[in-house]
Amino acid sequence: MLSLQHGSLQSTLTGIEMSSVVQFRGIPYGQIPERFAQPQTITTYPERLDCTRYGPRCPQVPIDVGHLLRIPREHALPIEPEDEYQCLNLDVVIPKTHLTVATKKLPVMVWIHGGSQAVTFGSAASGVCDMTKIVEDSLHLGKSIIVVAIQYRLNIFAFGDDTSSKNLSLQDQALALKWVQNHISGFGGDPNRVTVAGESAGAVFSHAHLVTEAPARQYILSSGSLHLSPPLPQDKSSAMRQLVQKHLRGLGDYNLRSAPVSIVIEALKQSGIQSWYIQEDPRLENWQHSTGAAERLLLSDVQNEAILWHRGMWATDTNVIVNAFDLAGENGPELKRLYNIHLERPSASKTGALDFLNDCRFVLPIKKMTQMWRMAQKPVFRCLLDELNPWQPSSGSHHGLDLIVLFGGFDLSFSPTVHKTGIQMRKKWIEFIHSEEPWSLDLSAAFGPWGEFRQLDDVALGSRRRMRQVEFLETLDHKVIDQVFMALAVGKISLLN
């Protein structure tokens, strides 16, 4: 253990001392006075604060994180504590040498985890988003960074009821970003060099913070953006609440505010809601056309993002798929041709439908955002992860795999190529966090397969992503794309694929 006398917190923090980094775990950054309340700033910290244990996460329907990631069953993931009112906490990971020989303030990455805004998909406690390795590598590269990973409210606890403030998860995260501005210098971090990063739902949140001009100079959006999960209209938000309320009533005389946590979780489980959403907010208006106040952006995707809908799509009748594509009207025939949709070819049609979901919610948004940032004359970097899952290579490079490769929280020595790709990814992310150019602005970067790192021109990019199809999608009205997407995707998403 190692202690830090923190000036602005007026507290002595005791963290976990490792070979080259120190972890300060479970630091509270906000208070929740009651269910669905707005988060409040903590004004006074105890004289001594034990930061040797991870803080509790928000209550949630339990899922097997290892299922999607193909983590072997014999690798038991820890059971993480949950607390509705104590889940606003964060971890700070810093180079150990910086505690004793701090010569200059270090750039900071703030990490927002994913999980469909429903669950914690990738905490440090699980090992999936353990920030130790990326901080260690930054030290070895001579480009040290500090990483802050935050917990926040999820599912109905963040969604609120009809009378509460909405988007409580965004408010929680905004409070954490304010905490970083006020207190990261006490850890040796530079509040003026903050990068906000997230994966999947974490990238959706990060994009929202970009639009609302949160205090950060640059952003990293991995496998997600507001294009993946646009702000939800009020009528649909109310319908989701009513569905949970309906199941609460089936369990007894309960409502959203009064029900015990265990009953709320059971109602959530019975509701079958797999994914939650940011709700419409005046601050998010015109989000599609905003680059905010951010100076730089990094956009990333994996080859098979659509694994999230795989099981649901494979159970779908081919007629349903064909009818969904027909919703594109006069563009339907060309859309079906490009995605190989044929009534008499069920397997090809299901694969094509998944390809469409992948392209319209991940690849097309990256193309649009890249163009928009270039038009605004702001630096934007685009990369692809095409490395194979180390435990099941036949699963390819799928949604969530970037967490395993990038953060290196598991022993991957049995897979030298994946291990090598992880080293390359961390190096390039660290360079970006240091405001360097990790690769040429006019090229895309590809991590993997087989441990390779390459820079791709547009022709090479087209060999790895369906850019011909994406260019056609770009000509369509977004309402047409959304209509086809909804007909194909609703009720099919799952982290258990």
Attribute tags:
497 residues; alpha/beta; Rossmann fold; 13-stranded mixed beta sheet; two-stranded antiparallel sheet; 17 helices; 36% helix; hydrolase
What does this structure look like?
The chain is built from 17 helices and 15 strands. The chain is α/β, with parallel strands linked by helices and 497 residues long. The protein has a domain at 25-42 and 54-230 and 280-316 and 366-476: Rossmann fold (3-Layer(aba) Sandwich), CATH 3.40.50. Strands 1, 2, 3, 6, 7, 8, 9, 10, 11, 12, 13, 14 and 15 form a 13-stranded mixed beta sheet that branches. It has a two-stranded antiparallel sheet with strand order 4-5. Helix 7 packs across helix 8 and helix 12 (346-375) packs across helix 16. The radius of gyration is 22 Å and the shape is globular. The protein starts with a strand and ends in an 8-residue tail after the last helix. The relative contact order is 0.12. InterPro entries: AB_hydrolase_fold, CarbesteraseB, Carboxylesterase_B_AS, Type-B_Carboxylest/Lipase.
